[in-house]
Amino acid sequence: MAVSPRASSDRRFPDERTAALGALIEPIAASHGLYLEELQLKPSGADTVLRVVVDYETGTEQVDLDTIAELSQGVSEALDKDDPLPDVDSYELEVSTPGATRPLTEPRHFRRNMGRLLEIERAGEPVLTARLKEVDDDGVTVAEIKPAPKKGMVPKTGPDTHIPYASITRARVQVEFSHTEE
């Protein structure tokens, strides 16, 4: 399954045009308690798609649909009022969250996913499936989840291991259908 990259804070706005849109949209997102993760402005046939991706900056709560709808309405009104895209005849506004399987690229992304199961890739190491236990300024502490030897058996949990951010080449949340705390 291909997973689109998640912009790090220095790449949220890839060009001057999206940076200008970001300056307009960021305060609206903040007024809803949200962080503007990234903006994308892409042609799509005769139209242009403006994709606004938001999330809470802290905590583990998920953004609900009512908040997305309110933000979408606020952004739409601001775009209609300020017309920051005078060279675009029509556009489609998409407001969403990053999604469950998008890569984690910043410490705050890891903090937002405390307790979740992650797939972590490190240079020269096998892929690690682990439960996220702690996040600090230098890296993450995880407990490896070793597959059950036979179907129906409980997977084994390894000892807590600290992994520096610098050694992580890719990390993403693994979607679980059920999980009980140990």
From TrEMBL:
Q: Which domain of life is it from?
A: Bacteria
Cite the SUPFAM superfamilies for this sequence: YhbC-like, N-terminal domain
Pfam families named in the record? DUF150_C (PF17384), RimP_N (PF02576)
Principal localization reads cytoplasm
* Residues covered by region (Disordered): 78-106
Quote the subcellular location field of this record.
Cytoplasm
Ribosome maturation factor RimP N-terminal domain boundaries: 24-100
InterPro entries assigned: Ribosome_maturation_RimP, RimP_C, RimP_N, RimP_N_sf
Q: Keywords in UniProt for this one?
A: Cytoplasm, Ribosome biogenesis
Q: Which CDD domains match?
A: YlxS_C (cd01734)
Record flagged with keyword Membrane: no
Q: Which HAMAP family match?
A: RimP
The UniProt family comment states: Belongs to the RimP family.
Q: What does this protein do?
A: Required for maturation of 30S ribosomal subunits.
- Write down what this protein is called: Ribosome maturation factor RimP
Please give the organism.
Answer: Nesterenkonia massiliensis
